[in-house]
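Review the following:
>
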Amino acid sequence: MDGQRDISRVTKPFDIELTLPGSKSIALRHLVMSTLACEPTELVGIPRCDDVDAMVRSLSRLGARIEAAGRSRLAVDPPETLAAGDVHIDVLLSGVSLRFLLAFAALRRDAAHIDGGPPLRVRPNRDMIDALRQLGCRVHAADDEGHLPISVTGPDDWAREVDVGTRVSSQYLSGLMLIAPRLPHGLTLRPKDEPVSAPYVEITRTEMERRGVPVRTSGTDTIRIDPAPYRGGTVFIEGDASAATYFAAAATLHASSVRFANLGASTTQGDFAFFDICRRLGADVEARDSTVSIQGPATLQPIGQVDMEDMSDAAPTLMAMAPFLPGATHIKGLSTLRHKECDRIACPARELRKAGVTVEEGADWVRIHPVSAPRPAQFETYDDHRMAMSLAVFASKFGGCGILDPGCVSKTYTDFWEDLAEVYA
């Protein structure tokens, strides 16, 4: 626990423009692809955050040469061969880095020993381990559920086809897609089930094709990737749609406006659909290819029920808004939230109840009722950046609240508190 951030009430409408941090999800994919590319890459728009730092350190230990090339820029010089010998990697709290690096480790003939912080150690990885063993890897995990620490040694003979479970995380599928072009025969991937957070698989496909690697699909359940080199050059990372949700929510709640300079309708990020939720609440949204603006409504509209399976990272943001909406708000499609940095169903419910909000919860849903007289509270964040940022939006409606351990936002959005200050300027 590190300190407290006091949140006051927003007392007047605001009108601001923000340049968002680059998309963490896209940046992490391009760091992997750049390490596997046939030539150097300059990544422009890289976010300053813990997850990117964890991936950079890990890929450096695996042989990549990665250097800062100015603010929000990284130069990646791919190795001719990956680092030899056993390596030990600590991904700290970066779940995406973990899943991608488990796949990346399969490219090496020596062992990669991968571990992370306590919150990451409770997240299961059995589906990825099963897939790596099908591929021919030798894998050792802490237990049968695939908890950290995990050791991966690449195979002597590569399988050409793999079945992969995707109900816990689509990141297993994305990680295997990213390494497939480097395998001797490429790889055919068959998801065992409908992937959760399917838009993230689409991000992987789109960004791989930006780098010159075709991804072919057959029907709805087979992905084929042939051997191919990733191109280098200059790659621009667009703004993070998940980060945008906090300010879109604040604008909607406070009848205010915000313009985002580096995110627009051309994105494949699933959380961009949060702007459609804001429209349903009465906001006016104007989206162009590379920019989007939102003006909050004078009167909020009820939303009733929302399925957020394809934008689960935005669910805590809507939970923070829900107590101030007309009528009860039922949010479903949240099965993956039990296995994030914290339990993102139980923990938000617990914190909202501190402020007098009535919250019902199930295995994969929450139902949040309007609050007439919210109580100021000190909010725990559970070492979860999305808890801190979403609860700050909630607290901005009535003030007098504190966000404990506010530094946890550095996992994905180091400058969040500075940007939030613009709302009060």
